[in-house]
Design brief:
By secondary structure, the chain is an alpha/beta fold. It contains six helices and six strands. A four-stranded mixed β-sheet has the order 1-4-6-5. Its EC number is 2.3.2.26.
Length: 142
């Protein structure tokens, strides 16, 4: 009602949110220190080390897209990643071991959870994450 729909129709939902809210530099150390792991993953697990190496390699826009892919929003709480919220209150960013190495990562935005397959190499993890983050425009339902 405020803006002519033709002017914003060139943007997908992620891009429009970035246009409206702007971009923020992501503090990777804050993100990492406020992430939990499940399914056998832990901070020193090789797949998790590759995950953070991939996130470090991403530019800020790709990091924001990853954040949006997993949480449903590209905005970071004012208080930082410790204050992320899920559908029913405070919910930390979570990476859980799930799936086959042929699968793309999947996200559960209500729970701020990334289901990450146990990829056998950094290059495979990086490519699959990039595909999931950059090419995904719909939500999968279970």
């Amino acid at each position: 009602q405020v803006v002519d729909a033709r002017l914003v129709s060139v943007f997908d939902a992620r891009e429009l949110e970035l246009v409206i809210a702007g971009t923020a530099e992501i503090d990777l150390s804050d993100w990492r220190s406020n992430t939990e792991y499940r399914g056998g993953y832990h901070d020193s697990h090789i797949v998790i080390r590759w995950f953070w190496a991939a996130v470090e390699r991403f530019n800020n826009e790709q990091r924001l897209r990853l954040l949006q892919f997993v949480t449903g929003t590209s905005s970071i709480p004012y208080e930082g990643f410790a204050s992320l919220r899920g559908s029913n209150g405070p919910r930390r960013f979570c990476v859980e071991k799930w799936g086959k190495i042929t699968s793309l990562p999947r996200a559960h935005t209500c729970f701020n959870r990334l289901d990450l397959p146990p990829y056998p190499s950094f290059s495979m993890l990086y490519e699959k994450m990039l595909t999931a983050v950059e090419e995904t425009s719909t939500f999968g339902l279970e």
